[in-house]
Amino acid sequence: MEIGAICGMTETEFWDSTPRYLSACVEAVQQRQQLSWEQSRYIAFHAIKVGDTKNKLRKLTDLNKFPWEITAPRPINRIEMTEFSDDADEVLRITNPTIYAALQAAKQQENGQ
User: Fold this and answer.
1) Sequence-separated (6 or more) residues with CB below 8 Å from residue 26
2) What is the pTM assigned to this prediction?
């Protein structure tokens, strides 16, 4: 029933509606909210852009990104993962030699089996 209240429905309208209609109502509310947030960002962007002497803001998403604008991270391939692992091992070797030595011993034991 909270969903009906969010959509601005009366209790009678809520109980008389179908799940499909209720779902469409919720989607419409979400789209209105999204549009409102995007309009607010547009206004804020142009208000801030006036004083942006270093030209740091070039597009609206430089100000902020909304959850619906964030794309899923791309998959990492085996080569990138190996390079990352090697870089991480090197950082560990420099920052904590004791743990690095234990890690290398564990890797050798794993490869020896």
Assistant:
1) 3, 6, 7
2) 0.56
